[in-house]
## 1
Amino acid sequence: MVEISEALRTVFTGTVEQRESSVVIEVPEAEITHGSITPGSVYRVALLATEETTQSSERQVGPEKTPPVAEGETRTVTVEAVGREGDGIAKVERGYVIIVPDGEPEEEVTIVVDRVTPTVAFASRVAESPSTTD
């Protein structure tokens, strides 16, 4: 299980690029627009490798990539961690993040995707039907 710090400001998927004598992590403009981060400020950065990372040469990466989910789509996901607001964080293809209300780590939940952005999707839980006992 991944432990999430209370100081977490944002989660996004970005590209690591070599540029002249430095390495740059591309931050989606939406992170600045939403106020998650401020240009010129200093942040601690954690990089999490995914299975997709090892296949990066075989795929396109970056904000121009289409999100792997669509609004209205129903999926079953596994919550990996809990964010500072108490919502679950699940990841699907290419490390794309889906926020799951009241998700608990290692919980498998069926969700419907309500809103999709280039870096994260927000979902609602699908109402579970009550189990019947004879």
Note: The first helix runs from residue 29 to 33.
## 2
Amino acid sequence: MLYWLSEFTAYCKVLRLFEYVTFRAGGAAFTAMLLTMFLSPLTIRLLKAFNATAPCRFQGLMDEKYIDRAKDKTPSMGGLLMVASITVAVLLWNRLDTKIPLILLSATLLFAALGFADDFAKAAYGKRDGISGRVKLFFQFFIAGGAVLWFNLIPETNGILQEFFVPFIKVPLFSSPWTLLFSTIVVVGASNAVNLTDGKDGLATGCSILCAFVFAVFAYFSGHIKFAEYLHVPFIPSISEAVVFASAISGACLGFLWYNCYPAAMFMGDTGSLALGGAIALIAVLVRQELLLAVVGGVFVLEAVSVIVQVASFRLTGRRVFMCTPIHHHFEQKGWTETQIVVRFWILASIFALMALGTLKLR
């Protein structure tokens, strides 16, 4: 919306700043951060008033001494504020004459709605696992598949979503409609991986900040023809608007972290985690770096893989590989404090982010 102020550059030279995606990205991040920070106290009071707390997922599955009962009173659904802040920032700072930010925002809101339904089932009906896993997975594929297909059909992408890119290789390996299915699976997997990671105060939030920042950098280079040619990344017109969207995500997460760091005053819940994971993965799909998402979101991958390995091992052999999964609970039972787990995982996430950025020159 604010982009249109650049039309009045003839009357005020300063308004030309709104033409630059870097300026608007900074504005989106700052707006989302301030909204989240200043509205968090009100959100916390409202969530407490509506008793928006979720039952412990590990009741009966984990030794009672590892369960922090104080968290049973911490309100969930804080993701509502995050998504609302992202929405306002996007509507203010993105160019709305392109479809890319509108598709990203629509998918994010739908993922948030699905997460809210899950959180509501836990809070209102005391269901430990929320809505049915199959129902949740169906709607995740529906939302992700719809967004990927929509991206593929718009003129801005020019069918590039069907091209399969691999890190370190300059040209796509092949082009096929089946790539769209792979992209959909990646989005669903990332959404669930962030959800699994959201088990310690600030853990998923901090890692999401780094992931969103990395893909904002990739989107910036992909949207600039000279940088795209120099770095051998696909040039996609109008994808620069994804930079603004990714910055809004980082800003909202930064503001939320102020109240979500240990001890958390509120949790994002599935409302936030499903939306964040889906949004970040969709940006990765747009810049054609789905495989690199496994590096950027290395912490999310470790969390998801630990669950898969644990379930497979127990069903096949009757033995558990880890003391408890997701893997952050394994380290908790090994004696790590919550702060140690979060900070050490943040360090890992920072290393993964630097590795991903390093691939820009290794092509």
Note: The longest helix spans residues 21-49.
## 3
Amino acid sequence: MNTTLALSATLLAASAGIAAAQDCTLRVTTWGGSYQATYESVAEAFEAEHDCTIQWVVGSSPDHLIKSRLGQVDVTTNTLLNSIAGEKEGLWLELDAAQIPNMVNLYENAVYSPYTIFANVGDYVLAYNTDHIAEAPESWDALWNPDYKNHVLIYGFDHIPTLSLTVLKAEQNGGDIDNIQPGLDRMAELVNSGNLIGGLDVESQMVSLFQTEDAWLGMLATGRMKELLGKGVTNVAFTRPEEGTFPLITTMNITKTATDPEMAAAFVDYILSPEVQLAFATRNLYAPTVNNAPIPADFELGELLVQNEAFGRLFLPDQEKITANKAAWQQKLNEMTTN
């Protein structure tokens, strides 16, 4: 090969390498809004380090599952139920700890399976009005306290926190998720006690009822607690009962159709890094799922984040069984509470 040909070959190889790097695109699902805004802010460093562009696949949680089926996604950010559905369909790659070294820092209960991990977590806590309830309740049993008649809030029965509470009460009263009757009996007692303002579906309404002091006690997502505090409400506090709280989980999976599985694994590893975990904690109030991302002491909303020992007490019953049985449970509860 003469000098000119050799130089041309070298230039072509270099151009091909540059083109390959420029063509690197990683498709990642997100819900848009503040979650996407945080994702985009932290992704800039990843894109620069790996010379790879993140393409955001924006939509609802069911959309993310559908697009994963269609091969339109590399990394899926989703809810646990959709990740479980994807597992049953065989959509996900097994997560390789050798390629995702930050997995070693995950809390034990943040590894759902070889295919699914928790990226961040919120929780439903027990909110209470300090003008009417002087001491923080230690148990979810406080919802049944007759002193709080017509001042208690829970989510509607088809919502995960209330369904989880039903399973918890079943376990505490001789049953379990496969023998739910003791839990339904306890929930029927709550409905029939007159304590409930209602089982609500609209969180903004729940916030308003705490503002107006119609609600003295009830379950509330930490994000809504943040909203109350932001509205200047000073007489509503929260506690995490001794039985644990009910989690709001963001999951991550790598699809079997990922165009570059190694790059996808690098992205998952990056999301588990302390810097990114803290970004979601401080910007979105989604707690880290790794044990090496302590919340800064000067972060004024840090107490709203489930951490350390409280993370280990997250109560997460079998989501598939809840989904499969909730309609039948609802019908049975209606029969037990209809006058």
Note: Residues 14-21 have pLDDT under 50 and may be disordered.
## 4
Amino acid sequence: MRRLLLAALTAVAVLGATAAAAAPYPPPSNGEGKAAPSRVKQGHCTNFSGDGFAVGADITITDDDRKVGMTQTDDKGRFSSRICFATDARVGQHVLRGTGRSAATSGPEQHRVTAIVTVTGVEESGRGSDPETTPAASVGDLVTTPFGLSLLLLLVLPLISGPLLVLDRRHRARRRAS
């Protein structure tokens, strides 16, 4: 019986550690461009930036190959642009791309940088810092995180192990009595 309890505790510890290690952080990006934040709600904005362009180059910015803006690079060939998503923007990953004249003296004339932005739905909102507009997290939200799953398993373990320990004590008492 003790071996069963030890095995259950070990399984909870291993599952919790595995779930925490599997969480993707930071979200995927090709490293050439940067979106901060890389996770936004529908109707919110991110700052998209990149470098490696010619000084004063016109940069075309696209979201999943749809033009969303234009900007120019600074005196070091860098750009930064605020990109906002509509309140009905498609939920999921969006590829932001900045394309413009390259600063390189050899190679392709055009340079591109990309960054991945994850747009979450309005129903997933409320994870901001304003307690007035932030709804309380539900149990379903907690269970979907690696920490929440580990916590749930740790809370359920006594419900399983308690009756097993009681049965083990009764069994031992019956063996001693006979």
Note: Residues 19-31, 124-136 have pLDDT under 50 and may be disordered.
